[in-house]
Amino acid sequence: MTPPKKVVETNKLSRVFKNGEIEVRALSDVDMLINQGDFVAIMGASGSGKSTLLHIIGCLDRPTSGEYKLDDVVVNNLDKNQLADIRNQKIGFIFQSYNLLSRTTALENVELPLIYNRSGQFRNSKELAKKALDQVGLSDRIYHKTNELSGGEQQRVAIARALVNNPTLILADEPTGNLDSRSSFEIADLFVQLNNKGKTIVMITHEAEIAQFAKRMIFLRDGRILSDKPIEKRNTREQAFRELEKPVGFE
Ligand code: ADP
Ligand code: MG
């Protein structure tokens, strides 16, 4: 059997922030391996280093020390422009706050990163954007302005935008943080569907029911990995919805 392809490999990754005299050690000696097809949830208290780790994995930031290999290439030494190129090619980022242009259509929001891609390789940007919106179940909303869409729909647009250049790795920082429970489960289920089609996904969340849609859970505490375990009983959309329907206080 061929070994699984490594997507993310870190070796003693550390990140220290300096604010004048004060040093904050956000990450300490993080060793992590994520293979193609993984779906990893990252949990941990506020301030435990989750976003810092995701920013480094997503080439938005660099470690202070340690090594990071993305797709078997060492990237921790690259300069800002080189990191931006890698990010445009290989990373799809999703944020809690969607970060969409509000008076612009769903289609244009998804198409924009292709239009501004420095490689100039995406001539059929409209078609690709339509395909990505179809993948997230929004074919009937492509000409809606994003401020006319629900929160869950807006996050779907953001996911389509992250998918549109067919990245190696999808990274999501609290993607359901602004959503009600039902929309959150729909978004978690969408990640499961994308993962079933082969996408490698790393998702930060502080909600256990959302984390349990993933295949594996990494727990951070004070910038270190406290545990890294497969999820034995994964949550599903149906199960999560049934839990919501149970009367409160009824066992
Ligand atoms: P989490 O996402 O788990 O809430 P973060 O990765 O955002 O945690 O932050 C980890 C630690 O690093 C915190 O103590 C935070 O205050 C600090 N930190 C994060 N970003 C910066 C920054 N740009 N400058 C200074 N300190 C930062
Ligand atoms: Mg955070």
TrEMBL record:
The alphabetical list of record keywords is:
ATP-binding, Nucleotide-binding, Translocase, Transport
Which CDD domains does UniProt cross-reference here? ABC_MJ0796_LolCDE_FtsE
Give the superkingdom in one word.
Bacteria
Q: Which InterPro entries match?
A: AAA+_ATPase (IPR003593), ABC_transporter-like_ATP-bd (IPR003439), ABC_transporter-like_CS (IPR017871), MacB-like_ATP-bd (IPR017911), P-loop_NTPase (IPR027417)
The answer, when asked if Plastid is one of the entry's keywords, is no
Task: Specify the ABC transporter domain's residue ranges.
Answer: 8-247
Q: Does the keyword Transcription regulation apply?
A: no
SUPFAM superfamilies found in the cross-reference section: P-loop containing nucleoside triphosphate hydrolases
Give GO MF terms, alphabetically: ATP binding
- What's this protein's family per the entry? Belongs to the ABC transporter superfamily.
PANTHER family named among the record's database cross-references = CELL DIVISION ATP-BINDING PROTEIN FTSE, LIPOPROTEIN-RELEASING SYSTEM ATP-BINDING PROTEIN LOLD
This chain belongs to the protein called ABC transporter ATP-binding protein
